[in-house]
């Protein structure tokens, strides 16, 4: 796990909410605190969609909603002249991207060993911090995948022109 201070908050927010920077992620949950708190549970409600609808929307096989599906809602929550008091986004790498990341990492882990690769964005007190994490299905003392995930998240921000400082 690593913690990164986002030094260009406006640039990250613009790319996150108006661009496709986080479209390779699923949204597990989000909360925005303004005059009131709004919480989004990103769990896909399978009963809401017919099988055809879920297939057409690209939701088949996903436990959580792709961020691109809720990005307009998040933009509406966060746009305005004032920054919120706080917000938190919990992103999960999509199953396809997770499998590719695990495969390319060169570690001994398989997709069956990992529940999720997480990226958390937490804003409070005019500061935006990103933390990373991995949820395992097994017990392991091997931290090589964590080190690779942390490295890849830094590369991800650099590729999008977002400056970060390691905390």
Largest sheet: 8 strands, antiparallel
Radius of gyration: 16 Å
Name the average pLDDT: 92
The run of helices and strands is: EHEEHEHEHEEHE
Sequence-ordered SSE layout with sheet pairings:
Layout: E1 3-6, H1 9-18, E2 25-33, E3 37-41, H2 51-56, E4 65-66, H3 67-78, E5 86-93, H4 95-104, E6 114-124, E7 127-136, H5 144-159, E8 164-166
Antiparallel strand pairs: 1-7, 1-8, 2-3, 2-4, 2-5, 5-6, 6-7
What would you note in describing this structure?
This protein is an alpha+beta fold. It has helices at 9-18, 51-56, 67-78, 95-104, 144-159; strands at 3-6, 25-33, 37-41, 65-66, 86-93, 114-124, 127-136, 164-166. Strands 1, 2, 3, 4, 5, 6, 7 and 8 form an 8-stranded antiparallel sheet that branches. A hairpin with a 2-residue loop joins strand 6 and strand 7 (127-136). The radius of gyration is 16 Å and the shape is globular.
Short synopsis of the structure:
The chain has helices at 9-18, 51-56, 67-78, 95-104, 144-159, and strands at 3-6, 25-33, 37-41, 65-66, 86-93, 114-124, 127-136, 164-166.
Name some characteristics of this structure.
8 strands, alpha+beta, 8-stranded antiparallel sheet, 167 residues, 31% strand, globular
